Amino acid sequence: MKNTGFDIVVIGSGVIGHSIAYRLKQENPQLRVAILGDPVNSLQASRAAAGMLAPFCECQVADPFFEFCRESLDKYSLFLEKLTSVSQMPVYFSQAGSLMPSSSFSETWNERKEFFKAESIPHELWDEKKVREKAPHLSKNCGEVMWVGEGQVNNRQLHDSLMAASRKLGVQILEENVSGFVRENSKVCAAVTETREIEGDQFVLASGSWSGQLAKVLDVELPLKPIKGQMCRLKLEDHFLDYTIHGMMTYIAPWKEGNGFVVGSTMEDKGFDSSIDDKVIDNLIARATEILPALKNASLIESWTGLRPAAKDLMPVMGRSGRYSNLYYSSGHYRNGILQAPNQADYMVSVIMGNLENEIPEFSPSRYNL
Ligand SMILES: Cc1cc2nc3c(=O)[nH]c(=O)nc-3n(C[C@H](O)[C@H](O)[C@H](O)COP(=O)(O)OP(=O)(O)OC[C@H]3O[C@@H](n4cnc5c(N)ncnc54)[C@H](O)[C@@H]3O)c2cc1C
Fold this sequence. Notes:
The protein is of the alpha+beta class. It is built from ten helices and 19 strands.
């Protein structure tokens, strides 16, 4: 069975694929856009993430990646306003900021402070008195704390909202996995699923950790692998903490609205292993409890594993393929794909529409001869 008539076929049903599809339809409602993939894939990063919007706590050098993430944070509020007005599905979003306890950064604390100053990052240093005032439930052992002007979303609500908005704008959401492609010389003609061939004029590979496998099917070597993260969510009343906490190997993300606190996370190079180790989860909770002692008695709501798509140089892979005239990539968003979603969607729409003004060479697929 053949499915004809799509202008653009996006392969990957996570936050990255959906934000591209949604923005394409916003830009040009006439475009016929399809999106392929399993939106409830339990390992997909978009539903596994903590939803921290943290360019400042995450980055340590002011490189193009940092600038891109910073721009994306700036775009978030308006992006969500427009998105939720289309989807009519609210997304929890907080700009209360993040806290970095000095106790977690003993060796690099001064370096972090210098970086924040040098880059004019919105931040404040809180002494113990201020910490007690603003975040009274933090452990007294946290010491001096840095407040950082960052954000937090509930990424599952974001994904739901993006799917609803895509659908409302007329994106065809086809819940099928791609197993092959029909090609003609340097052109992709169709994506092949178990039941049919889906023809399109242009294709976007946005399949997160699975992008490397799909690239192989296209005879292209994309050096990208999954980095496993185990994580959990604990039940604790909202008022215990307003801020996202970044420890060194620990974070605590408030999802609010009675949804508890997400505690993360491991970084494991174990392929597509989906197992959850209770001991690992206990260890994550123990470390988080050192920062927010109230978590000690909080009940476990759920634990899970997700896969971060990591390219070899840990940079995103975004742009036009050099090998196929009608193929684009947006993958490798690694630890910060939720944060990057708005800027990434704008960037990719400009690439696909052919009006990108400033290509970011560090992100270009050409660095891997793709
Ligand atoms: C534990 C964890 C914590 C994280 N925390 C944060 C955070 O706090 N802040 C942040 O900004 N980022 C965070 N991230 C990173 C972020 O989640 C990812 O960078 C982002 O979600 C990647 O989105 P994606 O759409 O590219 O990939 P995914 O969400 O993995 O989606 C990939 C999609 O491709 C589909 N697919 C796979 N194979 C095929 C196929 N053969 N055919 C068609 N479709 C296919 C899948 O079904 C899925 O829908 C975290 C990630 C993890 C795992």
